[in-house]
Amino acid sequence: MHRERSMTRDAPGHPDDAARIRARLSRLAWLLDSSVRLPGGFRIGIDGLIGLIPGIGDLVAASVSAYIVAEAARLEVPGHVILRMISNVLVDLLVGTIPVLGDAFDFAFKANRRNIDLLDSHLDGAAATAGRGDDPSSH
Fold first, then answer.
1. What is the DSSP letter of 98?
2. In 26, 27, 75, 104, which residue has its Cα 20 to 30 A from 36's Cα atom?
3. What is the model's pTM?
C-alpha cells in the first residue's frame, strides 16, 4: 500500500509534484532571505547570517542556494532562466565575500527570493500557455 502511493502521487512529473516542490522551495527561500524580522520591519534571513562566518559562510550559503537552482532544472525550467538564477547566486556569493560591504549586500540582495520569483514567473507563464492550448513551438 505504501509502495502504491509512492508510484502515483510522488512520481516525478505528477502535477502535485511540481506544486509541492514549488512550495518547499518558496519556504526555503523565505528561511534563507526573510525569516528574521528586525526592528523597523526590515527582514533578513539565515543566508546573510551564515555569510558572516569567515571563510566558509558564503560558500555554505551559496551551496544551499544552488539547491534551489538544481530543483528548478529538475522542473525543466529553460536554460536562460537557469542562467539568470545561477547569476543571482554568483553575484550573492562574490559580493558577499567582500568584508562588511558584502555582508550588508547579502542581507539586502535576497538572491533566493529573486530565484523563486523567476521560477514562479516561468511556471505560471507555462501553465497559462498550456491552459490556452497554445503550442509555443508553432510560433
1. S
2. 75
3. 0.78
d(CA 109, CA 44): 10
- Distance, CA of 68 to CA of 123 (rounded, Å): 14
Task: Give me the residue label for grid cell 526555503.
Answer: 28
Pull the grid cell for residue 94: 562574490
What are the residue ranges of helices labelled H in 75-132?
79-96, 101-109, 111-132
Task: Decide: residue 52, CB within 10 A, 0-12 exposed, 13-18 middle, 19+ buried.
Answer: middle
At a CB cut-off of 8 Å and minimum separation 6, what does 66 contact? 89
Give 128's pLDDT tier (boundaries 50, 70, 90): low
- In this structure, are residues 125 and 78 in contact, taking their beta carbons and an 8 Å threshold? no
Phi, psi of 44 (to 5 degrees): -125, 170
Q: Are 51 and 57 in contact (CB under 8 A)?
A: yes
